[in-house]
Write a structure and sequence with these properties.
124 residues, alpha+beta, two-stranded antiparallel sheet, two-stranded parallel ribbon, 3 helices, 4 strands, flat
Length: 124
C-alpha cells in the first residue's frame, strides 16, 4: 500500500518484536518461526504459508530482543507459523494453556530476579 509516496508494510517485515521503540521496560511475548510441519491438517492457504516458513522463508525478520532491558517470553510452538490462521480450536486451546504456564513461569522468575517490580507476587 502506498501512503504519501511511501510503501507501507506490516511492521513484522522490519522487526517482529521492535523493543527499541519502548520508552520503558517491556514484556515481549515472541512466537518464533515454525521449524516443522504441524500434525493436523491445515487449510490450503495456511498450509502454503506454513510450508514457505519452514522450507523457503521469504524473509528472515529481525527477532532479537534486549533481554537486559526487557522480559522476553519465547512461546514454544514450533509447529505454528506466523501466518497460520486456520488452526483448530484444539490446537489454539493447547497453545493458550502452554503459553499461560510458560509465561507465568518466566514472569515469576523475572519478579524474583527484580526485573519486574510489583506490589504482590503469588504462586497461583
Amino acid at each position: 500500500m502506498r501512503y504519501q509516496g511511501k510503501v507501507l508494510v506490516d511492521g513484522a517485515v522490519f522487526h517482529r518484536n521492535p523493543d527499541q521503540f519502548c520508552k520503558g521496560q517491556a514484556i515481549v511475548s515472541q512466537l518464533g518461526f515454525a521449524t516443522r510441519m504441524p500434525e493436523e491438517l491445515l487449510d490450503p492457504i495456511s498450509a502454503y504459508f506454513h510450508y514457505r516458513e519452514v522450507y523457503f522463508p521469504f524473509v528472515r525478520q529481525e527477532t532479537a530482543v534486549d533481554t537486559k532491558r526487557h522480559v522476553l517470553i519465547e512461546q514454544q510452538a514450533d509447529d505454528v507459523c506466523g501466518l497460520s490462521f486456520g488452526l483448530s480450536k484444539k490446537r489454539c486451546q493447547q497453545m493458550y494453556e502452554d503459553g499461560y504456564k510458560h509465561s507465568k513461569r518466566i514472569l515469576l522468575d523475572a519478579i524474583k530476579e527484580g526485573k519486574i517490580t510489583c506490589s504482590t507476587a503469588t504462586n497461583n
